[in-house]
From TrEMBL:
It comes from the Eukaryota. Keywords: DNA-directed RNA polymerase, Nucleus, Transcription. GO terms for molecular function: DNA binding; DNA-directed RNA polymerase activity; protein dimerization activity. InterPro entries: DNA-dir_RNA_pol_30-40kDasu_CS, DNA-dir_RNA_pol_insert, DNA-dir_RNA_pol_RpoA/D/Rpb3, RBP11-like, RNAP_Rpo3/Rpb3/RPAC1, RNApol_insert_sf, Rpo3/RPB3_RNA_Pol_subunit. It comes from Extremus antarcticus. This is DNA-directed RNA polymerase II subunit RPB3. One of its GO terms (biological process) is transcription by RNA polymerase II. It is found in: Nucleus. PANTHER family: DNA-DIRECTED RNA POLYMERASE, DNA-DIRECTED RNA POLYMERASE II SUBUNIT RPB3. Belongs to the archaeal Rpo3/eukaryotic RPB3 RNA polymerase subunit family. GO terms for cellular component: RNA polymerase II, core complex. Component of the RNA polymerase II (Pol II) complex consisting of 12 subunits. Pfam families: RNA_pol_A_bac, RNA_pol_L. Its main location: nucleus.
């Protein structure tokens, strides 16, 4: 599957970036990004790693916990459970919502209640035992994966906020075990966030990134004892490029233009959705930079100077930054918040929580 000129509306024009999907399944996607620069390719990689919004449990209210696990340890395990990010764009960030605490517009609520009444066996509690509910405790209808097909492969996901179960036993990650008489009752609040805030919001487990598999550009120095060819075998990506010829002249000004990316998702969204959302998010970030520069040009202010006498004055005084009024987000922030005191958009803490919570 090829995407020629993805993002600029150009079809069949080799002047724009091109995405060639070599293979994909439920958890991974392997594609080639070509006709672009190393800077743009690496920007896309970093965006897919840390800038795509997903859902994760961020607050755990523990009513009863008589298990052997401490409350903090249990909350940490719950936070790492992958939750479906279906229609996550329709969910508000907590910092942008007008509610007093949390509501159904900015959070998903999950309930876990279990007690072991057996005399002989331990009871194992899995992610499948978490149930969705509304803010006032009413159960939420859960859609299985494939129901009510969405865009970009989201039809493969269950209801937003529901744990994604991918193992053969359809149990999900193990949370804890309860002995006879032990009880666990918790209420979890899942919020929208990105991996820049915490890795539990990461949509990817790993991203493989390679260019110039034959090392014709000599960007890598290979340490070897006898022979570099024998001790450093080529990857399968080498079949996509012509090998260097003996005696071929070295081009000092050559630039890489094909990048081989292998993406492994965590299950919160299909891997092709991670790629599409990464491209879309990067486009939005670049558009914000262009808009900021255009606004300065229209106002007659030199780029990056913010009315001061040097580019650094622009950063310190809030002119021409991608984050808005100041270098630290005094205006519109890079994370969607409006006019606040932090780079994360409008409130005093980097994770969107209001003061006092």
């Amino acid at each position: 599957m090829d995407y020629e000129g993805y993002g600029n509306g150009v079809n069949g024009d080799d002047s724009g970036p091109r995405v060639t999907i070599r293979g994909s399944n439920k958890t991974t996607i392997d594609f080639v990004l070509s006709h672009t620069s190393l800077a743009l390719a690496n920007s896309l990689r970093r965006t897919m790693l840390s800038e795509i919004p997903t859902l994760a449990i961020d607050l755990v209210e523990i009513q009863t916990n008589t298990s052997v696990l401490a409350d903090e340890f249990l909350a940490h395990r719950l936070g790492l459970i992958p939750l479906s990010a279906r229609d996550v764009d329709k969910l508000l960030y907590g910092r942008d919502c007008t509610c007093d605490d949390f509501c159904d517009n900015c959070a998903c609520f999950l309930r876990l209640s279990a007690k072991n009444r057996s005399l002989n066996e331990n009871m194992k509690i899995f992610a499948r035992d978490l149930t969705l509910e509304t803010r006032d405790g009413r159960p939420v209808e859960s859609w299985p994966a494939g129901h009510n097909a969405g865009m970009d492969g989201e039809q493969e996901l269950p209801t937003r906020g529901q744990p994604t179960i991918m193992d053969e036993g359809q149990k999900g990650p193990l949370i804890c075990q309860l002995r006879n008489g032990q009880e666990l009752s918790v209420r979890c609040i899942a919020k929208k966030g990105i991996a820049k805030e915490h890795s539990k919001w990461a949509p990817t487990a790993a991203i493989g990134f390679e260019y110039d598999p034959h090392n014709k550009l000599r960007h890598t120095q290979l340490w070897f004892e006898q022979s570099a060819k024998e001790e450093w075998p080529l990857t399968g990506n080498a079949d996509w490029e012509d090998p260097p010829q003996d005696g071929q002249r070295f081009e000092y000004e050559a630039e890489p233009d094909s990048f081989y990316i292998n993406l492994e998702g965590t299950g919160v969204m299909p891997p092709d959705s991670v790629m599409h959302n990464g491209i879309r998010t990067l486009q939005e970030k670049l558009a914000n930079v262009i808009k900021g520069l255009s606004d300065e040009a229209d106002a007659g202010v030199p780029n990056g100077m913010g009315g001061g006498g040097s580019p650094m004055d622009g950063v310190m005084n809030g002119g021409g930054t991608a984050y808005g009024g100041t270098a630290y987000g005094g205006g519109m922030s890079a994370y969607g918040g409006g006019g606040g005191q932090s780079a994360y958009g409008g409130f005093a803490t980097p994770y969107g929580a209001r003061p006092g919570y």
